[in-house]
Amino acid sequence: MAIYEFETRTIYMTKQEIFQLEFENHVTEGLKAFPKFLSSKYIYDDRGDELFQQIMALPEYYLTEAEYNIIDTHKDNLRKVFNTHGAFDLIELGAGDGKKTKVLLKELVTNKVDFTYIPIDISQHAIDDLTNSLTTLLPDLEVQGEQGTYFKVLERLATYNKRPKVIIVLGSNIGNLDHPQAIDFLIKIKDVMSDQDFLFMGFDQKKDPLTIQHAYADSQGVTQEFNRNLLHRINKEMDGDFPVNNFEHWESYDPETGTAKSYLIATEPCVVEIKKLQLKTTFKKWETIHCEISQKYDDDTVEWLANKSGLEIEKIYEDHQKLFKDYLFKIKK
Ligand SMILES: C[S@@+](CC[C@H](N)C(=O)[O-])C[C@H]1O[C@@H](n2cnc3c(N)ncnc32)[C@H](O)[C@@H]1O
Q1: How far apart are CA 115 and CA 138, in angstroms?
Q2: Radius of gyration over every alpha carbon of the chain, rounded to an integer in angstroms
Q3: Is the CB of residue 212 less than 8 Å from the CB of residue 296?
Q4: CATH of the domain at 171
Q5: Which residue's alpha carbon is nearest to atom 11 within ligand 1?
Q6: What H or E segment, with its residue span, contains residue 166?
Q7: What pLDDT is recorded for position 9?
Q8: Same domain, yes or no, for 302 and 284?
Q9: pLDDT tens, 80-111?
């Protein structure tokens, strides 16, 4: 049970109820706004997790393969670096199915490194699946999974035990934030780090715009289904009547800013009623809902972000096709 401050009243709610209320408030705000928006972080329920796993297996979605290659190639070095100060907590923000992390976990467990793995994800389903699969794959591994959003969990991280921390954020999750939000995110991480701690984070790199465009607009339409899951969730959880098939996915990558943006676009005019929110909203033909950004980076931009956040780059790891990089950060001295 947790405390939720609402206007002047204090209400006692479960974590799940608070999360649901935040989702509902977000939908109200996003659909009343002009232009409309909805955050991609709410795509991830059981179905959303499953669709994201399908995306990771798509030939166009190079990110997973590239980061897998980095971790697999450098796992020996990463083990040594992470273990610099002895026993530690390995905290993963937005862990998902942990496909790439498992390579690292196996390396650590096999070499009898003393650590606890703490995966954090907004999706309870992702945490449950990951924890269960690790019980079978690595029975000796100590796992303490936790459902929650990055920011909420980061606030609590400071009170975790005082062992050295290695915080990992894979899959370019940071790319879903614009630069000011990314700086805020990095500062929050830095604030829970001490001098001996590491941050290991994936940043997808600027590259041929077509490669990026195709990664987020696949030929099989899986990304479209993934984004539409947000509307399915609203229909299911808030008694809405979005005509989901009338919303098409559109991806647009701007090579100048390095920002890929995804939208759902109404291909027919419609009125959508969401009974639980007592909300009616109209869509003109071709009206958009902005769902997600996927920011692409280069070394200069990552260095600038680090500088602004009180971090410094210790080491850069790159995949063999030079598509993706993971950066190892420490607190700036
Ligand atoms: C793009 S997936 C990447 C998963 C994994 N890091 C990887 O590299 O394969 C993003 C993951 O972060 C989770 N997520 C998205 N927004 C989040 C938030 N604000 N707080 C916590 N988890 C979040 C999603 O549920 C999903 O599992």
Answers
A1: 13
A2: 20
A3: yes
A4: 3.40.50.150
A5: 94
A6: strand 165-169
A7: 60
A8: no
A9: 999 999 999 999 999 999 999 999 999 999 99
Report the candidate in 118, 242, 239, 103 with the shortest Cα–Cα distance to residue 168: 118
Neighbouring C-beta atoms of residue 84, cutoff 10 Å: 11
Amino acid letter, 235: N
C-beta separation of 329 from 306 below 8 A: yes
- State in Å: Cα 189 to ligand 1 middle: 16
pLDDT tens per residue, range 167-217: 999 999 999 999 999 999 999 999 999 999 999 999 999 999 999 999 999
Residues 155 and 167 in one domain: yes
pLDDT of residue 155: 75
**CA 88-93-98 angle, 5° bins:** 90
> Which pLDDT does position 161 carry in this prediction?
63
Number of domains in the chain: 2
**Which of 44, 54, 204 to mutate for ligand 1's pocket (most ligand atoms within 8 Å of CB)?**
44
Instruction: Quote the pLDDT of residue 162.
Output: 77
Over the stretch 205-224, which tens digit does the pLDDT of each residue have? 999 999 999 999 999 999 99
pLDDT digits (tens, 9 = 90+) for 223-280: 999 999 999 999 999 999 999 999 999 999 999 999 999 999 999 999 999 999 999 9
Cα–Cα distance, 301 to 9 (Å, whole number): 43
Strand partners, 77: none
Position 111 in a domain? yes
The answer to whether residues 107 and 123 belong to one domain is yes
Q: Pairing between strand 146-147 and 115-121?
A: parallel
Q: Which residues line ligand 1 (CB under 6 A)?
A: 41, 44, 52, 94-96, 99-100, 121-123, 126, 149-150, 170-171, 173
- Domain extent at residue 167: 62-207+297-331
Instruction: Please tell me the residue having the least CA distance from ligand 1 atom 24.
Output: 94
Q: Within the chain, how many helices (H) and strands (E) appear? A: 10, 16
For the chain, give the number of residues. Answer: 333
Average pLDDT of 301-328? 98
